[in-house]
Sequence to fold (247 residues):
Amino acid sequence: MKTDKPLLEIIGVDKHFGNQHVLKNCTLSVKQGETVVLIGPSGSGKSTLLRCVNLLESIEGGSIFFRQSDITQSNVEPHRLRQDIGMVFQNYELFSHLTAAENIMLAPMTVLGINRAEAEAQALELLSKVRIPDKADSFPDELSGGQQQRVAIARALAMKPKLMLFDEPTSALDPEMIREVVDVMADLSAEGMTSIVVTHEMGFARRAANHIVFMENGEIIEHATRDEFFGGSVSQRAQRFLDQILH
Ligand SMILES: Nc1ncnc2c1ncn2[C@@H]1O[C@H](COP(=O)(O)OP(=O)(O)OP(=O)(O)O)[C@@H](O)[C@H]1O
Ligand SMILES: [Mg+2]
Fold:
């Protein structure tokens, strides 16, 4: 269900790595149920911005509100926050000695304390949702890259996150596997999962994004609705970038 209050508000965030100013006064709001696609050249700060939202990086200035509370305050427990904010990276890093189902069951059992039968039932449901219902007993090295990435998505969903962060989830995949991961992310968006997706898959953006945000040199330089973006109402700079990734 969509409400008007932002689920996530990034306000004036600043960050350096050494002398390098990697996030410059970044401001971005994401409402419940929205999908935001974040694009921009390599090194522009996309991953760093997502990592700040998940408290994998600290910020120097500004604030980040999630569900109306400032998560950059020192009393916020990162592990607790990460139960509500799932993250999927380019490299899925599943546990190789656990089956697909066991990878998905692990955190609900150890962190949330739910019992094995319940965790297993949920894992099977999630494997159906990511369209690999028959792979529960397969080990990661028996799965394709696209299947492994979908297990990683299911693993994140098992914690019932309120927000999902995807950092180039398809960029390590062979072209024929990109589509299956994109389809799963588009399903999630259609079901109302709030998400920020760093991706250059413009087909996904066209299908699923409510907003498209363009970063360059640590700055958010463009924030457009999907219609504005694909209707050509974008800056020349963003358009040049788009031309590069589309050709
Ligand atoms: N841990 C770190 N220590 C020092 N510098 C870093 C660190 N992580 C990122 N950077 C630098 O911060 C800048 C932003 O990096 P970031 O990874 O956020 O970019 P990106 O937009 O995700 O790029 P890409 O498209 O290549 O993934 C880059 O110049 C990068 O070299
Ligand atoms: Mg990155």
